[in-house]
Amino acid sequence: MDAHSQSDDIAERAVGLVRRLLSATETSHTARERRARRRIARLVDDPSALWTTATLSDAVMRVARPSAATRLLRQVAAKSPVTTRSGLGLRDSLGLKLLGAISPISSPLATRIVHLVVRAAAKGIILPREVGALRDHMRTRGDSMRFNINVLGEAVLGDREAQARLDAVCEMMRRPEVDYISVKISAITSQIVTVDHAGSLARVCERLRTVYRTALTHGTFVNLDMEEYRDLALTIDAFTTVLAEPEFASLDAGIVLQAYLPESHFAARRLIDFAAQRHHQHQSTVKIRVVKGANLAMERTEAELHGWCAAPYATKAEVDASWLRLIDLLLHRDTPTGVRVGIASHNLFGLAWALTIADVRGTRDRLDVEMLEGMANAEARAVASIAGNVLLYAPVVAHDDFPSAVAYLVRRLDENTSADNYLRASFHITPESAEFAAQEQRFRAALAARNTVSTASRRRAAVDAAPAFARGEFVNEPDGDPTDVALVRLAHAAPHVPAPDVASLDQIEQTLGELRRGAAAWSARSPRERHEILGRAATLMAAERATTIAIMGREAGKTFDEANPEVSEAIDFARFYAIQGEQLGDLTQPLGVVCVVPPWNFPYAIPAGGVFAALAAGNTVVLKPAPQTTGVAWHLADQLWRAGVPRDALAYLRTHDDHTGQHLVAHPQVDAVILTGSFDTAQLFVGWKPELHLLAETSGKNSMIVAASADIDVAVKDLVHSAFSHAGQKCSAASLAIVDEGVLHSSRFLEQLRDAVCTLRVGHGGDPATVMGSLIDPPGDALRRALSTLDHGESWLVEPQPLNGDINTATLWSPGVRLGVTPGSWCQRTEWFGPMLGIIAARDLDHAIEIQNSTEFALTAGLHALDEEECERWLARVNAGNLYVNRATTGAVVARQPFGGWRRSCIGATAKAGGVHYLHNLVRWPKATTTNGVAAQVSAWWREHGAQVRPSSTLNAERNFTRFAPYERVVVVHDSHDTVTPALCAVFRETMGIDVTLATPDATFELNLDTKVRWCSSASAPTARFIAAGAAYDTRPITSCVAAEAPRWLREQSVSVAHHRYGNVGMGPQPQVLPRVASPVTSDT
Length: 1085
Known about the structure:
By secondary structure, the chain is an alpha/beta fold. The protein has five domains: 3-34 and 123-449, TIM Barrel, CATH 3.20.20; 45-120; 462-698 and 905-924, Aldehyde Dehydrogenase, Chain A, domain 1; 702-893, Aldehyde Dehydrogenase, Chain A, domain 2; 925-1085, no CATH class. It contains 40 helices and 35 strands. The strands form seven sheets. A ten-stranded mixed beta sheet has the order 18-19-20-17-16-22-23-33-28-27, with helices on both faces. Helix 12 (264-282) links the parallel strand 5 and strand 6 (286-291). The protein is globular and about 95 Å long.
């Protein structure tokens, strides 16, 4: 028989075996199993019922405060229909409605019932970790069933919980009834740094040795689980490193390969070679457990947010073919005898084929069949009758940790109930059913494709934003892949970048003269020419990503994880502003010479944003770098020159922050200044030159609210990232957490926060092991006080320590967390720009919002809450430029989350960076001289734009919007003889429903943080007064271009809402993002 005929024969035999297994299954269901199958079958056929079940399991179970849990319960109950067609069934639907009704009367009783119901639903799927209960369950399954135990627990955010999980795993291995256990490296090792492969490997190996020593002592088989793609290489390296050591030479051990990753095929061959050598030397075996893949949703979500190609195969058909190909390889006659195989699946066609081919090849003795405990009990018994036994993968959790195991339950509900999943079909399948025919067809197609399915890495497939840019479309640049070994190696090979000497006054004069002369030529170029030059710059910057990351690490102390997205942001600015520049039209004129004054904390992206915006608008630019990061700025300028930007269109001037810096900023040849820095610096600049055309993004005193309904684990993870990434030296960093007092008083929140913060590895940015980098300079007065001095009633949860000097000289500090911060205190009001987090207790969400809105700054604000109504209430009331729901408050992405604040967080005629209005402030628009036709144009703009909430991305896993909000009042100052300005004001007031006050230059009027002044008078504007009051101001005349003029009357807000739970898109709260302005006026008169 030829190979093709034999393959067909094996397939036929496998299908016949499936028929026999199904027949055996149908007769072996217990009454309880039949009821459970009917319940699950109804559930998976009704998406709303599935959502209800997942939300009850996830949200309500996770919330500790009964009042918050019952609010969630009422929301779920209100959305759940009562019908005989409901996937919940009529009894459960009515019961849920009843629970929702009684919950206001007895919160503890209602939540207690939910807990009992969810635990009952999970019974047999998630097992009790307690000794007696687990032993008793294992005994009920009979001799033909063995157990592979996986210990679940709280999220591992730090070393304390990692050690606790390691201890729990070892305790489980010491039990006489447990002979097989699974563990993944991220469960026993915290804060793994992907780019620090060597350091992470050493830490993981240390933990694995403890596990394997316990295995040697107690005869327990250890299976090393696999979850995230980023951990594939690390897991295999740790497995082979430790098992190659003499101490473990005799130990039989296993490892998982996920068929949905093409890289698993290369990994399989590597493991086969390793097992063969080990068996030859020591007669020990390696078991390779082949699964389809257990983290698909999160892999796709992470890839989407970073712009990568998702690592897993794109289709279920490819995964099925890949699984069969791996089984085919591992069960081949030529595969060394030191390799055992675990075939893990519920698909009877795949299992039957593996059993059949093993029989034909004589390799059955090296094969184990593995299934999930509680998901298909009758099928497991039927397979065991053929295979001899079945190994059941069984997650276990302690009673008090059950809410932390809900993620596993939700993932199982999601992945096993998708439309093309076998398990979903198995609820209705019989040998004569349509479901059988469809599954047989899928099986045969996968079998035919197994030898041709690609094994090339999908993650390494190029995702290029340049082709879209060439078509005039904007697509965000993907971040560099931290699993790309070549990129990471180059990114830590820091070259020295010499920057020019400090400029003299004469050099400043000469340079500004050259830029003034070059302005005519640059502005005369067509927008398409400038578009092409900026596009070439973006391409060059993308090609030199690794070098740029290395320079930032060396000079600015940036870690790979901080510098990498900054490169993407800079590239995005080039392309986005190039496209926007082509849309300015013919009515505008460039301002002239623009001075860009960036900060040191984003030494590449922020100067790039200012430079590209000014160039795209037709201006020439002088780049004045931050003194601490002159090399990074020089590298950027050099890239632009090499891309074709003329040197008389872009100049680099390094100055001290003294009279030479003042001479440049206040120079009459400078037409505008783009500043990103402190409020005090902006105030200083305007003091030098009151009429300065300033576009300034300034300070932030940002906070994250952790509401009573928050998922504590996710909230702590995002809070730690928001507070301590780049050592807290971001204007968007959350230096305050406003925590519901019920959450704050629960030990779990503080324990998880302390654990995560204490585990952060502090070091220099160029060290790949570093999680939190250094300060750019020794602490200034505010930061020194924050790091060393407690105010009345405050205490340390984590006390910061200087690591390379004393409190006056150290730049390496361990992070700190202080408790007992009170509203209105120094800590709540002061921006300190460093690794310190203050915690404020709030009575409830309304109190938390009041505190959050009480600062003079309004840059970013965050909320963590699973209660949809709470999210909507927060979105309607919080005053800040960028709002973030159930995610970190840092990491704004160009066009996706245009960035900029309110109140003292912005100064001058500016708009959100990376937004569609930013370039409008870098050109001159024609002055309005009449009201003819204006009302109709304003009304149309208002209906189409101003009163709308506009999506700013097409992502699935994250919802992003921009919207406008009114100022409390707009004061318009005009000359007494000017009749056009008051008439135009009337149009904007009536159409937009905003409060407009008219005044003459000599009038007195009150100002506050939520006021804007439109200075339309020929008299000099008292800009210093506006800044001192924290009021927004604009000294430009009203323009006749409504698209440019209308946004000046409003504040713009970006909103970003996480739209997934554990990667499962659409789960979790889905708050409505509504307009913050009055209803639009529809009149066109």
